[in-house]
Each structure stands twice: as C-alpha cells, then as structure tokens.
C-alpha cells in the first residue's frame, strides 16, 4: 500500500490553566504546548524518524498536568519557547520530504492537537506551514475496532493499542510515546484493511473490493 503524501503523526502535551493547584480544572483551556512528539511515516507507512522536544510555557505547569504527564515545571523551565521549537520541527520535517506543504498531519482526535498547534503558531505570528488537511488517527482506530467486533466507545490510545497487541515504548501521556504508538496503530489499520478487504491488482490501479460472508 502506498499513500500520495507522507504523514506526521503528532502528539502535544499542554498546560491546563488550573487555578487551584490541588483540583482538577472544570475546563482545560490547553493554552500552551509543553511537549511535542512526532513520528514521520513515509508514503509506504514506514516509520522513518521521530521528533521530541519539551517547550517552555508562558503559564504554570500545575500539579494536575504533572500527575498526568510526569512533566514538571523544572523540566520545561530552561527550554526554548514554541517559536524556536517550531522552526526546529519544520527543519526536521523538511529533511525527510520534498515539500512540507504536501505532508499530512495526523493526530488522535483533531479537536485537541490541531487547534492547539494553530494557536501556538498564531501566538508568535508565525505562518502555519502545513496543509489544512489533517488525518484523524482516532477515526481510523474506531473503524478497526468496529470491523474487528470490539467496542467503539472507549477509544483511548492505550485501549486501542492493547487491543492490537502494541506495547508502548515509554510512558503514556508523554508526547513521543503517544505519537509513536498512534503511528503503529495506523500501520496496523492499513495493513489489515489492505490484507483482508481488497483483492490484489496491478500496482497503482484501484483494487476490487470483496466481502466474506458466513454460510449457514
């Protein structure tokens, strides 16, 4: 199987704008990125490289966020702000592709990571260098869970990875661990779809779809 675009599977950790240090916030505003993790998949869905950086935020990292992510204020205090990390991130992508605009971003539920990423670029008046098209890994995971007869109402990265037998290469809720796990989930989804639902055909040509039915 081959895609027309490379994929950057992206995961972000962020502040929560919590007012009381010992309480869970009623609304997580997710104002500032504190960590970025990414996995670069080529057009054959092979993992080419990874990227991870901690980011100095402009609001406190509270105990609530530290409990979830293990990221402490001290870990981020000496790190660059997002504007500098963004330049490094773009340079990393550019080393692996011909045109950064053609690369497709992918996240686990685009409602969190993509708006946060765009706000981070806008905050520093930095042009957003990516296409507006984003590949929702969570939607593909739901498809796999449904087709394999599993529950589709619990779709955390950890739950889906466990169903697929994927072991994390670190601690969940750290950006690189989540990004790489999500990339492996996408690899599994596409491998299973290609291997079980379409008949082989000439390279570069559409393949006929088939359905297996149980005979009573």
What would your notes on this structure say?
With 216 residues, this protein is an alpha/beta fold. Helix 5 crosses helix 7 (175-197) and helix 6 packs across helix 7 (175-197). The chain is globular. The protein contains seven helices and five strands. Strand 4, helix 4 (110-123) and strand 5 (134-136) form a beta-alpha-beta unit. The chain has one domain: Nucleotidyltransferase, domain 5. The chain starts with 6 loop residues before the first strand and ends in a 19-residue tail after the last helix. A five-stranded mixed sheet has the order 3-2-1-4-5.
Q: List the secondary-structure elements in sequence, H or E.
A: EEEHHHEHEHHH
**How helix-rich are the residues, as a percent range?**
25-40%
How many separate helices? 7
Total strands: 5
Spatial sequence of strands, sheet with the most strands? 3-2-1-4-5
Provide the CATH architecture.
Answer: 2-Layer Sandwich
State the shape. Answer: globular
The CATH homologous superfamily corresponds to: Ribonuclease H-like superfamily/Ribonuclease H
CATH topology term: Nucleotidyltransferase, domain 5
User: How many domain units?
Assistant: 1
Q: By helix and strand content, what is the structural category?
A: alpha/beta
Search tags:
Nucleotidyltransferase, domain 5; alpha/beta; 216 residues; globular; 5 strands
Strand-helix topology:
Blueprint: E1 7-14, E2 33-41, E3 47-54, H1 63-69, H2 73-77, H3 82-94, E4 104-107, H4 110-123, E5 134-136, H5 137-147, H6 157-164, H7 175-197
Parallel strand pairs: 1-4, 4-5
Antiparallel strand pairs: 1-2, 2-3
Helix pairs in contact: 5-7, 6-7
């Amino acid at each position: 199987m081959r895609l027309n675009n490379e994929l950057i599977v992206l995961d972000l950790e962020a502040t929560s704008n919590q007012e009381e240090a010992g309480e869970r916030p009623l609304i997580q505003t997710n104002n500032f990125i504190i960590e970025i993790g990414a996995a670069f998949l080529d057009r054959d869905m092979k993992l080419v490289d990874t990227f991870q950086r901690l980011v100095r935020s402009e609001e406190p990292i509270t105990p609530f966020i530290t409990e979830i992510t293990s990221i402490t204020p001290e870990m981020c205090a000496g790190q660059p702000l997002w504007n500098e990390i963004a330049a490094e991130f773009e340079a990393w992508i550019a080393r692996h592709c011909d045109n950064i605009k053609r690369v497709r971003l992918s996240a686990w539920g685009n409602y969190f990571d993509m708006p946060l990423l765009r706000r981070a670029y806008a905050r520093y008046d930095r042009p957003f260098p990516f296409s507006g098209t984003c590949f929702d890994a969570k939607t593909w995971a739901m498809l796999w869970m449904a087709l394999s007869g599993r529950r589709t109402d619990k779709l955390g990265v950890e739950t889906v990875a466990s169903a697929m037998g994927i072991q994390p290469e670190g601690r969940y809720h750290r950006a690189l661990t989540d990004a790489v796990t999500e990339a492996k989930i996408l690899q599994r989804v596409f491998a299973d779809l290609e291997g079980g639902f379409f008949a082989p055909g000439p390279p570069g040509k559409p393949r006929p779809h088939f359905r297996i039915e149980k005979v009573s």
